[in-house]
Write a structure and sequence with these properties.
Two copies of one chain form a homodimer.
Chain A (H helix, E strand, L loop, with lengths): L5 H4 L6 H15 L6 E2 L11 H14 L15 H15 L8 E4 L2 H7 L10 E5 L3 H9 L6 E4 L2 E2 L3 E4 L17 E5 L11 H14 L2 E5 L25 E6 L1 H4 L7 E4 L13 H13 L5 H10 L2 H27 L4 E3 L5 E5 L6 H12 L1 E2 L1 E2 L10 E5 L4 H15 L1
Parallel strand pairs in A: 1-13, 3-6, 3-7, 7-8, 8-9
Antiparallel strand pairs in A: 2-10, 4-5, 9-10, 11-12, 12-15, 14-15
Helix pairs in contact in A: 3-10, 4-10, 5-6, 11-13
Chain lengths: 409, 409
């Protein structure tokens, strides 16, 4: 038979979240009748808001009338949605990007994983440790790395940028050369945000090393601290070295509806092809490997960017941020050392008593019936931490926090 | 800056359908007020049916209530949908496949393009000529081929299986070795179908050469001829060497709603890893590069597989098949030599008077205001043909057919 991909075979163990789900399932089988309070996955729990839902239903009505039915849309996304995204960036962030720079997709995860495919296999990725596992795994599967284990707890061929308490969980640009710099702020899993100066250091690095930044801004709407950039394009010079990935998941509650976008300006340069080629190849990638996001989801996304929709999204974000506040103060009251949770739905929590991430995970599951995400699943520098997620119903959050406070006292 | 992918740089020119769209746009700019009757893209035109639309709207209602809201679903698809697909295959085709073999996706195009990524770069693809361009382009972008031009009108490293009038547009298995065999029946673009014996020859080839078949069955509901297999799994032995890709696009009208599936049985073997690895790697690919299809689309897909939904889909298919009948008899009356159009929405038409595909395309656009798809866009063996698509409103189809008949007489 044909050989399977040697690159895929290099991938270690299961993907983090399915593994967490598996352990919860096993625990639930052993404890029938008990329920687990999940503060583990970054999964939204609150209802889609009225204006956005109405827009999606209206789109379905249009599809049931042959006069207004539409089939395939443009692979790059509907023009009104791309225009609305362009306007959104200009209005909210003071950033000027043409609609043609925006590629609408079925979500930030797909784009974050696929973006490496348009770069040479010889490209060296630089990834924060800890990080959202998709950056590492997609680079392994895409053939940009060597074997697992040669780097301590990681893959050879990846430049790991350690983010820990000593640097406020914002790594400095690496000393060595890299080609693809993955950044995510507000950060998943640490909840850290980067200042303008910190991001500028990366843009300067990209210019110096002729590298490209892949900036994941999925949680940008959670930023409340004054002066923290919401988009990488707020940094001068980013438009010729940075790709930005955005999402409707965490503000409009579209985790299941699926919608995101990626910004690839035509001004991005590359070494082995003329300026504009990165844009052209991403366009080619989307036209060949993708057929556009669902038209129903896109109708919802367009509504989410309207004035009314932005208010609805803000109410959802406010809800989850209040959850984060409750968790943060609760964990501190329980004597735990915590980071993040201010401009982010994630509370990055130090495991007490020298426990490992999975030990504390098991402790919280067994003793408190609370599921979190082991920090070590995000990289070796995440060992000794767990990520607590603010996604959940208020009552479950309060319940989980009480349970943890009670057992840890 | 980082280097872009050398594999992507190997891709020739624009993707076929955008190029057709571009030529139509240019023509329309030159001919304001005139309208083009599009028989070019395989894009559905008739309304989503009532039961399926109602199911999607019900899903949106569930999402607007926090008690029934759901966020991320399983990357593999919702369990009820996977179960319904399994039941559908068993009931309609007499094929027994567990729900776990079904991976729900945002469409057949994505899966057809992505499937190569889980196989070794050294895998040799065998692709019919002509073929849906995604098979070739994804293999080029995925690094499975050499340069363009070394094969006449094609890429080195691809085994082209010529399909022409001499073999009824169903190629025989190649004489040389190949690892990944792409088959699509009913065929896009030729409209040909394969008999059980013809498919069995490919399954035998796959067993002999230890190859894997990738069977695109997106048009299976268009089959009316008795005895023609609807699924590759109707052929004995296919379950250990064949992957099948299916779609809701052309039966439920989901081209814009986006929903499809891929079947990867655990029984598929590979050379460099234990049996089950192909299934495991596709699962890993979907969990890493994808986050599940839209839950609204999945609700529609589940409804489409119900008894009522199947009737609604059948009514849509019947409509387009009647269009195909009108085109087929019209083209024959116009003196054109045609193939397909019986078990398929596509009529594969020989260009008259020795015209090339693009010459006949331009002729039809200029003289008849009808857009078709140049056969040469599907591969060098498609030169001298155009693909006429039965997707369109009845009145436009009749109008286009009259216009062609009139100008060709």
């Amino acid at each position: 038979m044909a050989n399977v991909s040697e690159d895929f075979l290099r991938l270690q163990s299961g993907y983090l979240f399915p593994e967490v789900a598996r352990r919860i399932r096993i625990w639930q089988e052993k404890n029938p009748g008990e329920s687990v309070k999940k503060l583990s996955i970054g999964n939204t729990t609150e209802a889609i808001t009225p204006g956005i839902a109405a827009a999606m239903k209206r789109k379905i009505d249009l599809l049931t009338d042959r006069a207004t039915y539409t089939g395939y849309g443009d692979e790059q996304g509907d023009t009104p949605l791309r225009e609305a995204l362009s306007l959104h960036y200009s209005r909210e962030y003071g950033v000027s990007l043409p609609p043609s720079a925006f590629f609408v997709s079925d979500g930030a995860k797909s784009d974050a994983a696929n973006i490496q495919s348009i770069f040479s296999r010889s490209s060296i990725p630089a990834i924060q440790d800890p990080a959202y596992p998709v950056y590492v795994d997609s680079n392994v599967a895409g053939g940009h790395t060597g074997e697992y284990g040669s780097h301590q707890g990681g893959y050879s061929g990846i430049v790991y940028m350690r983010a820990d308490a000593s640097n406020g969980f914002v790594a400095e640009p690496p000393k060595e050369h890299a080609d693809l710099i993955y950044l995510c702020f507000p950060n998943n899993p640490t909840g850290a945000v980067a200042t303008k100066e910190q991001l500028k250091a990366f843009v300067d690095y990209a210019h110096r090393e002729r590298a490209i930044i892949i900036f994941d801004s999925a949680y940008t709407d959670y930023i409340e601290t004054e002066g923290i950039p919401h988009s990488i394009y707020e940094i001068e010079g980013a438009e010729d070295c940075a790709i930005e990935i955005g999402s409707f998941s965490k503000n409009a509650g579209f985790t299941g509806v699926r919608l995101g976008w990626t910004i690839v300006p035509e001004t991005i340069a590359s070494d082995n092809a003329p300026t504009g080629t990165v844009h052209r190849l991403w366009n080619r990638r989307q036209c060949t490997f993708f057929n556009g996001a669902s038209n129903v989801s896109q109708a919802g996304g367009l509504a989410a960017l309207s004035e009314e929709g932005r208010k609805e999204c803000a109410s959802l974000v406010t809800y989850y941020k209040e959850n984060a506040r409750i968790i943060l103060s609760g964990m501190k009251a329980a004597g735990l050392e915590c980071y993040g949770g201010i401009d982010s739905p994630y509370i990055w929590t130090v495991c007490p008593s020298g426990m490992s991430s999975w030990e504390f995970f098991d402790f919280l599951l067994e003793k408190c019936h609370v599921a979190v995400t082991p920090g070590s699943g995000f990289g070796s520098a995440g060992e000794g931490y767990v990520r607590i997620s603010a996604y959940g119903h208020r009552e479950d959050i309060e319940d989980a926090v009480s349970s943890i406070k009670e057992k840890l006292r």
